[in-house]
Amino acid sequence: MFNSRLTQVGRMVKQLTRAGQFASVTRAEYLQRPYNCYLQPVIYHPFSTTAADNSCKEVNEQEEKRISVTFVDKYGEEKHIKVPVGMSMLEAAHQNDIELEGACEGSLACSTCHVIVMDIDYYNKLEEPLDEENDMLDLAFGLTETSRLGCQVIAKPELDGIRLALPAATRNFAVDGYVPKPH
Ligand code: FES
Hints:
By secondary structure, this protein is an alpha/beta fold. The protein has helices spanning 2-18, 27-32, 54-64, 89-95, 120-124, 131-138; strands spanning 23-25, 42-44, 66-72, 78-84, 114-117, 147-149, 162-165. Helix content is 30%, strand content 17%. The protein has a 5-stranded mixed sheet. Helix 2 links the parallel strand 1 (23-25) and strand 2.
């Protein structure tokens, strides 16, 4: 009775493995898995030498992908940082002690996160600004053709190497209660 149950369980595990429900990993791979991969069920094969658990690795490699970004301050000083894909330039600036204010914390209610994309090719790779962003940009000090709000510029692989200039000053009407007129 017990033996037949055991055989049934063994058969089910085999089927799930074949169906890709469980990843098959070696001991070394199991121990190297990032913490979030422990949520994925695995079958640990102590003597296996084949690597079959690529899906979780790929997801984590993508998550850990970083791009190079250079911030140039008003004195022309450059700071090179690595920014994870998916992170806004405002967050990246704050994490790296770069003086980009961001008074409304990314809620499109100020222009204090104004940055100037220094290369038009990179500017053209950005998503189109929302109307709210354009409204706020209209209030920005030193607006240029390639101005954007840093909280709306999200790191993606195509932006690797982007250079962002910080304007000499910022204006902060909106957070203090200013409501822009519709266009
Ligand atoms: Fe206020 Fe970006 S931080 S709009």
